[in-house]
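In pairs, describe these two lines:
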Amino acid sequence: MPRLPILLPVILLLLIPCALGGERIRVLNPGQGGAHLETWFRSDPLFEYLWVPSRDFGLGLKTMNKYIKQYFPRTAEAVASYDYILLNSPEVYFFSTQQLQWMYDAIRSGAGGMNGASVMSQITQIHNAWEASILSDAFPNDAAAVIARGGGGTSTISFFSVRVNRNFDDPVWSIYIPYGIEQIVTQKSRMVILREGAEAIAYQVGNFPGNDVPFLAVWEYGEGKGRTMTTGDTMDANCFFTHGWSYYNDYIPDMFINLVYYSTKRTLITDVEIYHRVRSTFQDFRTRMEILLSLIDFTDKFGANTDSIQDEVQELEQMYIDAKELYFEGDHQGTEVKMQEAFDAFTGAEVEARRMKDRALIWVYAIEWLATTSTLMLSSFALWSLMVRRRLYRDVSTTKLA
């Protein structure tokens, strides 16, 4: 039986969200999902992510209502507990007026937010519902103006690239210019028209006439100065964030996370390389820890004493906690140093775990070898006796009647 005192705390550490050091960023996505969003948010210990499906791809009204009833927060206070509301192309008529009001109030009180794909569609039912909802008032895209031009869909020119606004005060995306953000070419953008008081962090070039169509708009909204954004990306296949990440640029998840930092008024990424390395170390640590725990659990099932590795596992656990605290505080350089210490310590733990496994299995191997060898010897003896020496065979003889 597995020794739960060793394994359970580490499993909980890796799988259950916990608040350490600085505050976590709670993300609510009442919209379209995607494996990329799951990967970006769930692989980063700073985030807690909830997806509420609200895009009907042939599932039907009954199923969509079931999803929203099951997953959407039940009270205004629960919605207000989220720091960031990601509206990734939802169909807002699936939500009640009260639920839309709760999200609006959360943003007005200081939550960050992003509206993906502008007013989302040229389909009248979808974009009219968005423009009529109170929630659209909290975002910097002028939904009424976009609808007046025929919707937010793409023009006849399908491909575009992004040009970063060099005049924007904060280096949200300008730090990624040397990393090829403006060389990514993709398609399926949407029209964005700035409201009064909104600014463009970046422009889209090639899909619509001119070079001044915003790709990423931002403004401050509400008494609590909630900061929201509108992006011309649909965040599904063949778009800037997803297609660009898959085929062009490994830094796109970092660029997206920096937008979340900016919208929630966290400290922005300053050292691109260190942050990029640090985010990947957490996923690597979890992968190696899961393999180590599986090996310990496997060895334990054969009756081996795994207590000797307990201290090493607990030390690794503490290093991970210390690194997360530094990461939550925005100390990416300190996080990198602490995680490197953890990876160095992993080697000894993995060697010890393999040694225990080999020691536990040696008797299994010995018994299997003896069983196989004895079976071979017995079968060989029987074969020799019956087929070669033919001891049991007798010559045929005749009998006579008396």
